[in-house]
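We emphasize that the prediction below concerns an isolated chain of 69 residues; any contacts that depend on oligomerization or on bound cofactors are therefore not represented. The input was used exactly as deposited, without trimming of termini.
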Amino acid sequence: MSEIEDRAARIRAIAETCLTVNELAKRLGWNMETARHANQVLSLNLPDARLQTGPRTEAKAVPKPVKRK
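Result of the prediction step, given as a token string:
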């Protein structure tokens, strides 16, 4: 195997234990831009922690503070 294929295999092995792109970046010591690019190019399909998952929460009304005399 070439050096590039070896490196890609190592990155894929590390990515298997990661839950998000943020965790991949932390384990490899990369910045987020590089980790997102690797996720896209190597088709790792890791979710990005900055993207919200699940249902949106509704805004709740907060009572106004009462002035005390």
